[in-house]
Structure formats: structure tokens, C-alpha cells
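ping. complex inputs:
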Amino acid sequence: MRKYIISCVFLLSVISIIVSCQNQETIDLQNYMSNGKDIYKAKCQNCHGQNGEGLGQLAPPLTDSVFLKTNKNRLACIIKNGANETLVIHGKTYKEKMPAFPELADIDVAQVMVFITNSFGNKQGFVLYTKVASQLQNCK
Amino acid sequence: MNKIISLVACCVLSAAILSSCQQDKKLPFYGERHAETVKDADGTEKVDTVYQTIPNWSFLNQDSVVTTNKITDGKIYVADFFFTSCTTICPTMHRNLMTIYKEFKNNPDVMFISHTIDFKYDKPSALKKYAQKLGVDGPKWQFLYGSKDSVYTLAEKSYLVAVGEDSTAKDGYIHQGYLVLVDKDRRIRGAYDGTKEDQVEQLKKDIPVLLAEYKK
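pong. complex structure:
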């Protein structure tokens, strides 16, 4: 009987470890999303809007999932260092300069990037901050 | 029976109070005021309160046309201070003001005036570009350029909005994000934080209230 209970508990804990392992990424994603949202509100929302709708032709919307996908590897650099080039988004040209946010740490950039790329109709999934950190090392 | 009567009385009374409140609703006056003896049309003297008013001004607008306070004659208007390269509060302010602009677009008695505080960069051509990109076209919303002294004095002394150069600020200038509501007699009747949605909503409600004052 005792053996039976012990093996039961053991089995249960193994299962729970596996389940929680599988969910670690989901947990991280939720974590990034909620922190990213706060950073977005503080740093991005004034220009890009509450729903990523942008502001006239002054600030582009963040709803162009094709643009965000094709520029996936540049997003971290744009968030941190700003942009000073003409961007075509939803077929419209945007020429205004985007300011840099040097105060954002790698983890902040990762969180806000994950938030943006999984909101406003985008669904790119999770990116770990270590990957973002290496992208930030190689900004042009 | 007594209970019912008192209940009905209560209801009638509160309804009367509520409706009288609505009739009396008038926006406050901002700024300095003093008493002055004025003469009526029939010559009798009486003491009247004189409120602070916006003085005469003359600036260049987004079309490089000299624009004076005459453009606001017979209109109520919303004034604010901003600059085109501002990345902090101005986008939010003008995003919110844009909703009010759209709401009153077809009302000839309402105007919008934005003064730039960036006297170095925001020449009329820069203002024009900004206005177009924001989605504003036409004379209803004026973007005005003037010398540092004239604009800053107007902001702080007349519109009661703090502005200034600050090399430590992110974009080089600091300013308050107030949307100032001015009546047809150039008196300040409201100041709303343009970065806060609830205050902008209040402004949206207050504009018709102010317009109604002139309909009597």
C-alpha cells in the first residue's frame, strides 16, 4: 500500500513537472505581454495609439502584420534606436523620425516587442530576451 | 398615505432642483479679475467684474499668412502650445484634440489654435507639413509661428500655460498640455489636460454649454 502511494505521488510530480515545462513558454509569454503592455503605454502609446492605430501620417500604425513579420529581426533595433528612414506601411509612406529609447534595457525591449507583435492583429509568438539581446548587439 | 405624499413631494423637489441646475450651468472664468465702474447705455453707473482677456496678437500661420486675433472674432476657440518634433505629450494632445475638431468641424463658431513653442525649427512650412500629416486641412485649425518672446509671454501671462526651453528635456522644450477654452469675448472659460481622455471628454461637453451662453 505504502509503495503504491509513493509511486503514485512520484508519478504525479513527474507529470506536473512535464506539464509545467510545457507551459513555461506560455507563462513567459503572459509575463512579457503584461510587462510589455505597461512599457507600451509609457513609451509608445502617445504616438502609436492605444490600439496601435498610429497618428495620421505622423506615426505609422502597428497593425501591418506583413511589415512586422518581414522586419522581424530589425524590430528590436528600431524600438531601441529609433528610425530615420522612409517606411512603407499599409501602402502609405511615413517619413517622420522615430525617437530612440536608450533607457530601455534588453529585457524591456524584448517585452514590448513581444507585446506589439502579439497585439493589434499580430500573432508572432514568443521571443526570449536573450535572442533580442543578441539582435541589439548587431544593430546597424 | 402620508408616506406617498412625502415621496411624491421629494421626487418633485429633486426634479426641480436638477432641472434648475441644468439651466444655470455656466462655465467658470479663469485668471485675474477686478471690479470696474462702467456706464450703462442709459448713462447710469454700476460696478462690473472685468475678467482677464487674451490680448491682441499677430503671428504667421501654416500658410505663411499674417494672422491676428481678428480671426477669432465672434468665435469660441481652443488654444494649445506644442511643437512638431515633440514626442512626449503632444501626439496624445493632438490625437485627442483631433476628435473634438472632427466633432465641431461643421460648426462655424468653433476654432482651434495651436501655437508652436519651437521658434528655431517650426517655421510655417514645418507647421504646414505637420498639419497635413495630422489630417488637418483648412483654416479652422490654425497652427501659429511667432518669436520666442511673443509666444512664451502669451502662453504664461495670458493663457496661463507654462512653457520653456530645457536642454535636459528629451526634445529640448517643456510645456503643459492644456487645451484652453476661450469664449467670444476672449475670456478663458476652461483648461483641460489634453493628455487625459476624461478631461478631453469634458471639453467636448463644455463647448456646447459655452456656445449656448451666446444664444440668448
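The domain at 25-137 of chain A is CATH 1.10.760.10 (Cytochrome Bc1 Complex; Chain D, domain 2).
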